[in-house]
């Protein structure tokens, strides 16, 4: 290529004369000269990026140590190599084991890399791009909790775009593992930092998480769900306001109409009372919406949102819409990952409680307790949940009931038991038996002794049983 270019450039005039004699147009000639320039540029690039054959380009030939690697397009750099987690040849691109290194960094820092190669660190987006461009790479994510329980996620084809593409997560390939496929949702998302927002939401998720991430994350879906609720509430409020306005505009006509239709004074008073209740409901809904709108709805990635990664212990969880709270996690009865929402083993804790107490939770997390209706609503709204009920009598005989889709409504819905899903077990399907006797808890609002939402005629089941529950016709199940 160099010889050809040298000959052409030595006599550019002759080249143009030759072009004229052969009837090559001036435009075609310019294309030839442009091609010469591109060939020259390519030669320079090949010279600059030619890799020293004595320097390795990956960790394939190394064990567990920090090694110097070299890939085309960048200077030689050091990277930790690992063979403990998934066999030989893995380059560690990120490690986070504590809060000793701050990951709240700039775009430039995430591009170049930062941290301690033997501790918490980030290898660098530019290196990731060049590595995954040079040859095919897998991605292996190892997770470990404070009880030394581990989970992993593995992807067969991991590729990162260049800086002009904002280091987009181009491919992941096929998933395998037991940690859950959390990354496929982020495929084709550009990288974001606090000062460079590339997510698909109208707020900066990197700012919310005080970190950087290829993120559309759950923040978009969570906010959209909340927004739908707000729209529904607004429509209900507008309808109620219209009804109240019409009725209050002419209360005399309302009484006259009642008289003509044979409506008694007592029935009319009940209508006016209902108007007052509607006004109260509007105020409550507005207050609830304001809380939902203004409260910080985002989850710090370092805070767990469920018990999946824990064994038997009390852990701190955080779900959108609620402050961080403690919950017992259990792996004895039905495998790992269960949050205990109620435990009753004796009468040391009274369950004859108010609506507010059932809303917030009460009792001893290591003994008898109730987690709280508001937390149940937020947890089951965030993601699908199963319900597992373990029963044991004084003879140590056990029964269980398992439901595939447990969901609780919000306070405006009186924490209605929205769904339970499919039943399995040997305790009997008491929550959704569909036997026609009217005792099922499904679709029932929650009742407490001072707030009766059951269907028993003129009878308060919660007061009778001295306990709160989704009572239907005074059957506990």
What's this entry about, in short?
Helix content is 32%, strand content 17%. The chain has 477 residues and is an alpha+beta fold. It has four domains: 2-49; 65-217, Gamma Fibrinogen, chain A, domain 1 (Gamma Fibrinogen, Chain A, domain 1), CATH 3.90.215; 221-294; 313-465, Gamma Fibrinogen, chain A, domain 1 (Gamma Fibrinogen, Chain A, domain 1, Alpha-Beta Complex), CATH 3.90.215.10.
Structure write-up:
With 477 residues, the chain is of the alpha+beta class. 32% of the residues lie in helices and 17% in strands. The chain has helices at residues 2-10, 12-21, 26-49, 107-112, 125-134, 205-208, 219-249, 251-260, 265-294, 355-360, 373-382, 461-465; strands at 65-69, 77-82, 90-91, 94-95, 114-115, 121-122, 139-144, 150-155, 159-160, 169-171, 175-177, 191-192, 213-214, 313-317, 325-330, 338-339, 342-343, 362-363, 369-370, 387-392, 398-403, 407-408, 417-419, 423-425. The protein has a 3-stranded antiparallel β-sheet with strand order 1-2-3, with no helix packed on it. A 3-stranded antiparallel β-sheet has the order 4-6-5. The protein has a 3-stranded antiparallel β-sheet with strand order 7-8-11, with no helix packed on it. β7 (139-144) and β8 (150-155) form a beta hairpin. α7 packs antiparallel against α9 (265-294). It is elongated, with a radius of gyration of 33 Å. Residues 50-212, 298-477 form the Fibrinogen C-terminal domain. One of its GO terms (cellular component) is extracellular space.
Write the layout of secondary structure elements.
Layout: H1 2-10, H2 12-21, H3 26-49, E1 65-69, E2 77-82, E3 90-91, E4 94-95, H4 107-112, E5 114-115, E6 121-122, H5 125-134, E7 139-144, E8 150-155, E9 159-160, E10 169-171, E11 175-177, E12 191-192, H6 205-208, E13 213-214, H7 219-249, H8 251-260, H9 265-294, E14 313-317, E15 325-330, E16 338-339, E17 342-343, H10 355-360, E18 362-363, E19 369-370, H11 373-382, E20 387-392, E21 398-403, E22 407-408, E23 417-419, E24 423-425, H12 461-465
Antiparallel strand pairs: 1-2, 2-3, 4-6, 5-6, 7-8, 8-11, 9-10, 12-13, 14-15, 15-16, 17-19, 18-19, 20-21, 21-24, 22-23
Helix pairs in contact: 7-9
């Amino acid at each position: 290529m160099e010889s050809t270019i040298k000959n052409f450039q030595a006599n550019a005039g002759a080249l143009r004369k030759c072009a004229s004699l052969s009837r090559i147009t001036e435009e075609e000639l310019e294309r030839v000269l442009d091609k010469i320039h591109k060939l020259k540029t390519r030669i320079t690039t090949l010279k600059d990026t030619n890799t020293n054959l004595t320097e390795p380009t990956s960790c394939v030939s190394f064990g567990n140590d920090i090694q110097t690697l070299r890939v085309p397009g960048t200077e030689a750099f050091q990277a930790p190599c690992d063979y403990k987690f998934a066999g030989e040849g893995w380059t560690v691109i990120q490690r986070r084991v504590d809060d000793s290194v701050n990951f709240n960094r700039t775009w430039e820092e995430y591009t170049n890399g930062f941290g301690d190669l033997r501790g918490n660190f980030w290898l660098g987006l530019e290196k990731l791009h060049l590595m995954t461009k040079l040859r095919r790479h897998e991605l292996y994510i190892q997770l470990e909790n404070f009880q030394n329980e581990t989970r992993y996620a593995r992807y067969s084809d991991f590729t990162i775009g260049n800086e002009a593409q904002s280091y987009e997560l181009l491919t992941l390939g096929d998933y395998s593992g037991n940690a859950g496929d959390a990354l496929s949702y982020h495929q084709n998302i550009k990288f974001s930092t606090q000062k460079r927002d590339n997510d698909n939401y109208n707020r900066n998720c990197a700012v919310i998480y005080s970190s950087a991430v290829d993120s559309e994350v759950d923040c978009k879906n969570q906010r959209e769900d909340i927004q739908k609720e707000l729209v529904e509430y607004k429509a209900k409020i507008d309808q109620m306001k219209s009804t109240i306005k019409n009725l209050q505009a002419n209360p005399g006509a309302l009484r006259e109409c009642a008289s003509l239709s044979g409506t008694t004074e007592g029935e009319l008073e009940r209508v006016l009372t209902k108007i007052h209740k509607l006004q109260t409901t509007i105020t409550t809904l507005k207050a609830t919406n304001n809380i939902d709108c203004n409260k910080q709805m985002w989850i710090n990635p370092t805070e767990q949102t469920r018990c999946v990664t824990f064994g038997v212990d009390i852990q701190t969880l955080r779900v959108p819409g609620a402050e961080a709270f403690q919950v017992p996690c259990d792996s004895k009865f039905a495998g790992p990952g269960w949050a205990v929402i109620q435990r009753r083993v004796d009468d040391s804790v009274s369950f004859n409680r108010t609506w507010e107490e059932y809303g917030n939770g009460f009792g001893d997390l290591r003994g008898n307790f109730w987690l709280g209706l508001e937390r149940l609503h937020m947890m089951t709204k965030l993601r699908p949940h199963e319900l597992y009920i373990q029963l044991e009598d004084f003879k140590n005989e056990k029964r269980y009931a398992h439901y595939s889709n447990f969901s609780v409504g919000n306070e405006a819905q009186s924490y209605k038991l929205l769904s339970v899903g499919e039943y399995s077990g040997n305790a009997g399907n008491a929550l959704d038996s569909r036997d026609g006797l009217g005792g099922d808890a499904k679709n029932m609002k929650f009742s407490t002794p001072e707030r009766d939402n059951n269907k028993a005629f003129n009878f308060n089941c919660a007061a009778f049983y001295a306990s709160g529950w989704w009572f239907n016709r005074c059957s506990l199940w």
